[in-house]
């Protein structure tokens, strides 16, 4: 049976909308079915591009600004970090091919852990990242110990 969750917001999307949808499916799958979010971001990116071009900027400058608008606040992925924790720390329990699905299942618990952190675009480059990684590792271990798989 096809997964309608992944196909629903795709209809009629612009270049920016499709680019964002593809990125969300990889890094923020919990947002991939938010058609309003995707449409709003895509429109803002297209407007940013047009604005730079109208003001005499180059296509490269316009594309860079559009990408900045499109991906603002999405560079750090809690889901991606959780998937990395599962792949790196629990490879003996959760097979590699199941790591992304497991991360999606455990994402609500990971969000609870991450609430005390400021998850900005550059978060992975901060000292706090190691603390979050350690907390996520402990959380996954507790969940596995309690039979949640």
What does this structure look like?
The structure is a single chain. The chain is mainly α. It has 2 domains: 4-71, PG0816-like (Helicase, Ruva Protein, domain 3); 78-145, PG0816-like (Helicase, Ruva Protein, domain 3). It is 64% helix and 0% strand. It has 7 helices and no strands. Helix 5 (78-89) packs across helix 7 (128-145).
**CATH second-level architecture of the largest domain:** Orthogonal Bundle
Number of strands: 0
Radius of gyration over C-alpha positions, nearest whole angstrom:
18 Å
Low-confidence stretches: 1-10
Helix content: 55-70%
Elements, N to C (H/E):
HHHHHHH
The pLDDT mean sits at 90
InterPro entries: DUF1896, PG0816-like_sf
Protein name: DUF1896 domain-containing protein
What's the topology here?
Blueprint: H1 4-7, H2 15-27, H3 35-54, H4 59-71, H5 78-89, H6 99-114, H7 128-145
